[in-house]
Amino acid sequence: MARLATHHKEGRDPNENDDRAVGGTCSRFALADGASTSARAEEWAEILVYAYVIKGVDILDPIVLETLRSDWRRRVHAGDLPWYALAKLQLGGAATFVGVDIDSDEQRYRAFAIGDACLLHIRRGRVITTGPLQHPRQFGRTPPLITTQVRDNSHQAALWEHGDGYARGDQLVLASDGLAKYLLEQHCNGATIDLAAIPDNDNEFREWVADARRAGMDNDDTTICLVQL
Known about the structure:
Order of helices and strands: EEEHHHEEEEEEEHHE
Number of strands: 11
Largest sheet: 6 strands, antiparallel
CATH architecture: 4-Layer Sandwich
CATH topology: Phosphatase 2c, domain 1
Strand content: 25-35%
CATH class: Alpha Beta
Helix content: 25-40%
Oligomer: single chain
Structural class: alpha+beta
Shape: globular
Number of helices: 5
């Protein structure tokens, strides 16, 4: 099972949140953080997580990826659009991504990610594995992205893949960049990460995010998919 929660960037409307995450009782979970500088990033993020979790496809397979890109173009060009909206769409959409596939029979998981959306494997409040980034100083303004541009394979050079076993009671955290950086700061400072303190109730999560931002977490769309193993 997974706990999902999200909160938009302060100063923006909730519908401007470009993060998307999908979880449930299945073996796959995913989170994508749409790049706000790209076009219709929220649509691209949703396409990626839905394809990986619900359709169960390999979103980085070249043929599959081109199909998903075509799907994005169909969605965003639907209806009559003003010229300036059409001009921005030429830039294409882009997103970071992290996905995990769990084999409960073997008690193992496989994960992959592009960019600064991160996976943290946590046991009793301590980080066992984190990727693609391992330290708060690695976060920046221009992470690698999966884009909607035809035949753009630049993300391949930044692909992070990881497989490992897990123990009962372990937790996997899929987190957008601001939250991932905040949790890694706690880890690097030697603190125990108390995931139980992160609520899944929307109102309480918003309050938790506000408190975390006052404590130094970056003001950005903030999303978590917490998988209890």
